[in-house]
Amino acid sequence: MSTLWQKDIHRGDRLFQFVLRACAIAAMVLLLFMVVNLGYRSWPAFKVFGLKFFVSSDWDPVNDQFGVVSFVYGTLVSSALALLIAVPVSVGSALCLTELAPRRISAVLGFLIEMLAAIPSVVYGLWGIFVLAPLMRETVQPFLGKYLGWIPLFSGPAYGVGMLTAGILLAIMIIPTILSISREVFFAIPRAQREAALALGATRFETLWIAVVKSSVSGLFGASVLGLARAFGETMAVTMVIGNRAEVAVSLFAPGQTMASVIANEYAEATTDIHLAALGAVGVTLFLVSWLINSTARAIVSRSERRGGAGGR
Amino acid sequence: MTSSENSNVILEADKIHAWFGSHEAVKGVSLSAVMGTVTALIGPSGCGKSTFIRTLNRLHEEIPHTRVEGQVILEGKNIYERGVDPVGVRRKIGMVFQKPNPFPSMSIFENVAAGLRLAGISKRSLLAEVVEQSLKQAALFEEVKDKLKAPGTSLSGGQQQRLCIARALAVKPPVLLMDEPTSALDPISTAKIEELVMELKKDVTVVMVTHNMQQAARISDKTAFFLMGELIEWGDTSQVFTTPKVEKTEQYITGRFG
């Protein structure tokens, strides 16, 4: 018997496995720690308000009244607005970059767009305050008010800052995310599939539709969910342009507030224990809502994949 | 070629040249296909046979930086003439590819109906009729009749390839191009497709690229041998395989290179 059989040749393998396992466990422990800590800090608020915290929109730190509804509303509406604007723009530009633009231009543009993701959100916020908000106040909102003012969504005074402005700013911030993932999804579609459509007598547009877009639905959905997650958690830029008023207003021109922005805004100034606990409870709510949306999205994707709409690979 | 055959020529390529950038992959190939026959294009890898077949339905030009020169006469009309819409050409010339490529987002039914829908047909009863007929023609109907709504990609490789054949046949093209249709399939699926091709030639003229010389010998009426972008020899399959006129052909057929 040679030494080959005695020496432990799998030691490297085992070490590698140990390190990987440690990393995986660390990630889980971190999450667990976050949940426990958040629960511990918010517990006093839940003890006082109970489930009422989730159904009340009354947020009045002076009188120690706390309810999360207006922030949930703010987060959901501003993120939904952002998605509504960002998804068509991103998917459209991704299609253009992968299918129509010459390779070289596409590479340069793609790089520039990905650079957008690297800009700090406070810079987006400043741009929002100094450029976007005045533009909204003086041009966009008066215009919308004049022609669409009969719809409650576009009624009321033009403040500049508010839900619509936050939604637009968020849209700009999540476009790079959705766009770059959509681009990858389209790139992954084999040439053979486009040729199948062409050979069948499809025009260029029809080829894009039946061979590219239709087979990418679940991938595009995933891209949108990632964008949504980013919009959900975005704090600084939103805080700077949303107006920070805790109320549920129908008009998109009205100021609002999101879960992330209320925490950023009030945490440093919260003096009473119950106020701090309530902000912790807002954090718990944000956690729950994100988790709910993410798992719903996953369920939808896996259902559509079972039906055969897989990513086209 | 006798004159009676000549009048039945449905597709005729005349001095076709094709380029990728500055590389000339096809160098002046002239070839014609008689209605109701199977023409096999054989030759070693990179000899230009696939590129050539892709000039016959103007698919070659869809790849950036490519160029085609020459004429292809389909039913008496040059498809490269100025003003001819390549989309219209492709509706008259079906194509089946090397790897089965059903649309993954579509059911079996929708895959076969795709070409009809592109042609603007949306009447459900008509679609159902043509889909059934095409699937029968592609010898797939019995295997899928109970799961027409299942995704096309849920079928086996050989079934997917027959699905692609059904999809191409649904618009009733006079010519069907096949680019190594069995090279990704197992022997049993290959045999089924070969059988099918021989059956199909009643209705459609087939031009087929194949890597497999036995396949060409088994199912084709005419064989064309390509080498380095040129058409070396072309004639009746039995003649090309038994008494080739050119030495290169003989060397290739007897396995001395390729």
> Poorly predicted ranges of chain B (pLDDT <50, ≥5 residues)?
none
Give the N-terminus to C-terminus distance of chain B in angstroms.
29 Å
Total helices of chain B: the number is: 11
End-to-end gap of chain A: 49 Å
CATH homologous superfamily (4th level) name of chain A: MetI-like
Notes on the protein architecture:
- The complex is a heterodimer of chains A (313) and B (258).
- Chain A has 12 helices and no strands.
- With 313 residues, chain A is mainly alpha-helical.
- The longest helix of chain A has 39 residues, at 11-49.
- The model of chain A is unreliable at 308-313 (pLDDT under 50).
- By secondary structure, chain B is α/β, with parallel strands linked by helices.
- Chain B has a single domain (3-253), classed as 3-Layer(aba) Sandwich (Rossmann fold).
- Helices cover 36% and strands 26% of the residues of chain B.
- In chain B, helix 5 (124-137) packs across helix 7.
- The mean pLDDT of chain B is 91.
- Chain A binds chain B through residues 102-103, 190, 192-193, 195-203, 206, 210-211, 214-215, 217, 307-310, 312, and chain B through 57, 59, 62, 64, 87-88, 90-91, 94-95, 97-99, 101-107, 114-115, 118-119, 150-154, 164, 167-168, 171.
Helices and strands in order, then pairings?
The complex is a heterodimer of chains A (313) and B (258).
Chain A: H1 11-49, H2 52-55, H3 69-100, H4 103-116, H5 121-148, H6 163-187, H7 191-199, H8 204-213, H9 217-233, H10 236-241, H11 259-266, H12 273-306
Helix pairs in contact in A: 1-12, 3-6, 3-9, 4-6, 5-6, 6-9, 7-8, 9-12, 11-12
Chain B: H1 3-6, E1 9-20, E2 23-34, E3 38-42, H2 49-55, E4 66-74, E5 77-78, H3 86-92, E6 93-96, H4 108-118, H5 124-137, H6 141-144, H7 157-169, E7 175-179, H8 187-200, E8 205-209, H9 213-219, E9 222-227, E10 230-236, H10 237-242, H11 247-253
Parallel strand pairs in B: 3-8, 3-9, 6-7, 7-8
Antiparallel strand pairs in B: 1-2, 1-4, 4-5, 9-10
Helix pairs in contact in B: 4-5, 4-7, 5-7, 7-8
